[in-house]
Amino acid sequence: MQALCELNYAHVLRILPDCDTEDMSYKFVVGKGLSYEIRIIESARYTSTLSIQQTTKELPSYLTPCMTVRLYHDARMAEVINSQNTGALQPSYDYPNVKMRQRNEKHMVNIFLAEWLSFCLQHPSAVPFEA
């Protein structure tokens, strides 16, 4: 998990080198009809908090991915702290549980973030612009 969070941090810095400025928003367009927005919602000396969401208009909001990511600048790690507006994620869950979360749900959403960031980096035409 730690290696994955370190990889995510490195990828975020490649996409957003200025990720410590609060209240900034970047939009990425990848192909026709696929767009994402990254907003810096909080920035402090050692941490920044980002909101990442798909902004495709053709899909209903409950089908579009969204997550909150915390960047730890001193540890050089990026961790998903909230996914699909479901609240804070625990490191692991007993199974079965009331909300039917997977045992390794936090790890899985961090893998999703890694895959999404890799996708953005593989498509250089996805040039960010400030919103």
Q: Tally the helices: what do you get? A: 2
Question: Could you state the order of secondary-structure elements as H and E?
Answer: HEEEEEHE
Poorly predicted runs of 5 or more residues: none
The SS-based structural class is alpha+beta
Helix % is 10-25%
Distance between the termini: 32 Å
Q: Main sheet: which strands, in order across?
A: 5-4-3-2-1-6
Folded structure, characterized:
- The model has no long low-confidence stretch (mean pLDDT 83).
- This protein has helices at residues 2-15, 105-122, and strands spanning 24-29, 35-43, 47-54, 66-72, 77-83, 129-130.
- The N and C termini lie far apart (32 Å).
- α1 (2-15) runs parallel beside α2 (105-122).
- A 6-stranded antiparallel beta sheet has the order 5-4-3-2-1-6.
- The radius of gyration is 15 Å and the shape is globular.
- It has 131 residues and is α+β, with helices and mostly antiparallel strands.
